[in-house]
Amino acid sequence: MKKKILILICAKSKSDEVKNKNLLKFKNRTLVEHSIIHAKKIKKNLKNMDIKIVVSTDSKKIANISKKLAVDVPFIRPKKLSTKTSHEIDVWKHAIKFLNQRKIFNPEIICSLPPTAPFRQTSDVTKCFRRYFKKKCDIVFTAHKSKSNPYFNMLEKNKKGIFNLSKIPQKKIFNRQKTPKVYAINTTAYIAKTSFVMKCKNLLEGTIDIQETKEKFSLDIDTNYEVKIMKAFQKN
Q1: Distance between CA 93 and CA 88 in Å, rounded?
Q2: What SS3 class is residue 223?
Q3: What is the pLDDT of residues 19-41, one digit of tens each?
């Protein structure tokens, strides 16, 4: 039997630091359009799967852009799930519940493709799916090796106002190459069991695995500095 997979693109209208972030253009397309195009390529790559692409947004403009690209926008996201303090997991739960209750689609797996990853490689997402099917886990994140390491160059301030390493290694470490490997979760893709999503409060509380990606493909457009980086690449 075909696995039922929901590819969800969460794209709200407002953003905190970067104004209208999801509508920024990169190579003549908005960021949300890039995610939709990525989703369609992934759907082609995953043969013998029952896949539905849905955009969750509170914006009529984003909804219209999405519909022009022939993807479903079955609802306008509630305002309470579209604020700067809204949790992404609640947006996922809302989409899954909406589709279920209206008997539109009953997904076993959810894949989130945030619009803030325009350099995403669809091959990385396909690998992420393969890893998910191979491993017995609740969720697979894409992640890249982090240059910042809590065992070597990340500090925390204690109650006395003194700074110490975030994690104290058992042995003294004098160069980054000797530190335990740590990974930074990026926004290339998140893939999870819908049964896990519906019952959990935090995506990090389940059994986790990662699909490693290259840092150059993992830029997350979340600040104005990252927008400048994206625009610099656009000129090339």
Answers
A1: 9
A2: coil
A3: 999 999 999 999 999 999 999 99
